[in-house]
Structures
1.
Amino acid sequence: MWISGRPGVSMSRIAIVFCSLSFIFLIWSYGIPHYSASSRYPGPGEKVVDPEEYTPGQFFARTTTTTESSFGAATGIPKPRPETSGEEDPEILEPTPTPVVIPPAVPSTKSCLTAKGADDIMVVLKTSATEIYDKLPEHLLTLFQCTPHYAIFSDLDGVVAGHKVYDALENITAETRAKNKEFQYYDKIQEYGAEGQQLADLKGEGTKNLDKWKFLPMVYRAYRMQPYAKFFVFIEADTSLSWTNLLQWTTRLDSRIPIYAGAPSNIGSIRFAQRGGGLLISNAAAKLYATAYDQKYVGKWENRTATECCGDVMVAIALAEAHVEFYSAFPLLQGETPATLDWTKRHWCAPVVSWHHMSPNEIDILWNFQQAWTKKNGWQTPYLIKNAFSEFVSPRLSPSRSNWDNLSQDHKITRPADDEALGEGTAWYKLSDADKNSTLSFDYCKATCASYADCLQWRYKTGECALSKVIKLGRRVTGENAESKSGWFVERIEKLTRSWEPCEEPSWSFNQ
């Protein structure tokens, strides 16, 4: 039978063509996976995120739950099971397909949000409502643009520029609040906050005394917020954190080991991580701490806090009772600024992860330096203390600088004000003529420094000459100290720092 008068087209041939097309359609629809960023199947324990609703850097905007395949298995923590109505979990037949990514024609700098290890870190900043508008904005503009997981704790619950701020003190027991007078200031902060008053007017010792009560609840709540983070880093509002160096450091550590580390300090027999340099706590340590907290906080630790000077000391006490040992992370985590740090051979080849006592301006300057560093060197090359020296200190050293205190202090010579004290039998009498003359002028002080082979810098003010064999930058001084004048032997310093080279490998080590 012929159709449409065209030879060669029969019903059987039409059937064959139709079947072939149907088979191709089925293969295309079900046999070949299609990939797109918006239509990818969610993996186990993963919640689909609407790209339009996700705000990078905002803690609660990130809805993806870390799966066992990333670091849940590595830490030994079981994968969370979704709540069900009694039915068995659906069987996952095939792994989630990986999207096809076409590389850009021109390589681009890797985002700080997606750099290796970024998703494993929880950064926690502690501040006060009385200073939050002075110190928090700089972190929102810099560090928190790069941290997928972070939280801000204060003594007043609220929102700052769209960022949630948690009240670390809201669960302190009523009995403790009644017994400790500093909580009168806490109540005043709540009152001012409710009335929209100027919280900065409450600055003072009373509000500072509240600070120690924030630490233990803050560490506990941070772990409960992000229990699958590999590491928790706790900083102050005046701490500058190097994001690239922190990531490179923590990727070298094992979060399954209980680690509590920081810049070491001592009060009596208690060795602890000084808060300003930052506290690093591993997942294993945080888990042990949370278990002990549930058992001991209300009955023991909260009362102990009242008797201790500081919150960072209480953290050390609590972690010790949770069987977590302290590790010194100096100089990676340290409590100085580029102006006050001792620039020595001991530090020269170590990466620097934190600085303390930093103004918002200084935090911004360091952040811009770090951004330029990663753009030039990538995210796998740390900047070392020697690089910070070349950037922030070396260009500012000179033979003479007025209105400046370079913190020379190894050998201080002070001319007695009382002429009778200049006589025999006094400490002044035992000094050499050169040392005595050093108190007469800046040039005499410089000459005395030159007479010592290891003297690198000096500072003079009327009747006083201070010498140092350690390099320090110092700061401009005003008021009654404005007469201070400082100098450095630049050639000696250049020769000394050259002898500390080369740095074959960055020194990431820390110890107990």
2.
Amino acid sequence: MWLVVGGPVAVIVAGVITLVIAVKNPDPVLNKSDYERDLAAAQRLEGQAKVDALAKMQPAHQARNHAASPVVPAAPSK
């Protein structure tokens, strides 16, 4: 009997725990004007500072894909 009841009870307990975590720690809503301001500031930089700043501003899916198969920027030609 415990095998029949235990599985569904474990799923319900896990669901309640997940709900509590989700309610206590919601993801913040990003302010679009702050993002655009930071992006404009990053665009004004030059050299490696610009590359680093723009890399930090990437959406999560692009950053994840970049980490999986990194593209190394070419060294500037002399």
3.
Amino acid sequence: MQPPLPLELIISIVSFLVEPRTRKDAEINVINRSTPNIRGQASRDLLTCSLVCRTWKDVCQALIFRWIRIFCYEDMVDGFSFFHFTVPRLCKHVLEFSLVFSGDIESIPRWMDECLGRFTNLRKLELIYWSDMDAAVSFQLAQGIASLLDTINLKHLSLLFCDNFDDLLRILPACSATLERLTIQGHDGYTPTTVLTTPLAVRLEALRSAELYGLLNPFTQTNTIECPNLESVTILHYRRGPWGLPPWIPASITKLILQVSSTSGRLQFSRAVYPASLKIELNSLIGDVAWVTECINHLPFLNYLQQLEIKISSARNKFILPPSAHYEALCRLLQPLQRPTLLLHIIFSVDVRRCVDIGVGELEDVRVGQEGRLEEAFAPLIKAGGFSAQLVVRYRGSEETPPAVMQCSV
């Protein structure tokens, strides 16, 4: 009989079977049909390998249960009883925990706090539709979550489609010393009607990155937190009308990322911030650059920038590329900004949802022609140095043809 494989080699082999988190279709039921509301993200091959022997099972389970999503309905027993009563030992493998709530939840099991306390290695917690729960239920659950976070080193807290910020400010103090990344997304179209009742701001010393999707909520409009060491801020804002940065963002941030549409209102700076890096991601159906022009012309920190990246994305049903006028407009906008210490990077990203099949030879002609247009339009910037431009086109021909990518750069 051949000797067994070393444990280190088994771990190395099995790790190749881990399904990337970017694949949404990889979210599967990792337990059995009796627990349909528990999901994980593991490949079928990984699940099969867990059946080889006890050693392989232990290695695979650590990977299978590293990310778990529970859909919480009614009394939440169905989702958590598996971990609490059947296999509590698996809780230690969970590194990322995603909980999806509903308005059907009427009560919290008495053993919930004990169950939550077993997730001792949790590094990311994602709470989805928290605001759909009754206030009394969410208050009780927030206490249990805060007790858990008080004993672990949580790095990333994510609240999606959440407008109950009083509960958030009950949870945040429990992870204030360890939290490095905070993601908040409110309900689309939400208009704040309540005022936060927390008298003092929560100080998050370890926070380095904040992602805010939707700014019309009390959390982003009041001084609810202090984050003196915050480095990167990402803001998605698609609404019309003027808007500004949350008042708790420190002036010392190093990177600001704006995700906007061509119909977004203009960003107004009521106070100073001095990011060294600015990235503008503009979603435009026609690739129009007018919003970028308006924004840059009103930036109060242009002299402090060391890197400026502009990405303009458009989705079309035909293989139509940005006109030369858009390239030239950006060149005229950026030329006065150019200096030896500033890096400029432009990306045009076109997603062609439906188009006729394009031959390889024809596509190469298009690519060469686009590179020529980029070189001609941005010639002054290219000559001065510190500038790069790209055109990335993702397209599909017939339904049988897999998606393809055309890319050219200067």
4.
Amino acid sequence: MLVRATARGVSLDSPRDFTTLSLVLEGGPAAEEAAGRVGTWAGPDHLVLPASTLVELAGPVADETGWREGFDRMITLATNKGWVDSSGGVRIHVEQRR
């Protein structure tokens, strides 16, 4: 999954790809502000985003057969690596693109 933040807001690209999870910032400070409205910054290179927000960003794709199982496997893997906090926030690596 690729979370994309621009000055216009936050969207989810490739919602069926459960092998990667990152945030791409496009647009400098305005994109950083947009990302901060849906998640919490954990330093310059990580955003903590509620898992429920990822489901919301997936939109109707989240209702497809098998999608939730794939998503849950991805979250379990992230949890096992210590990337999910006790409130369900997922730490996502940030890629700066300006």
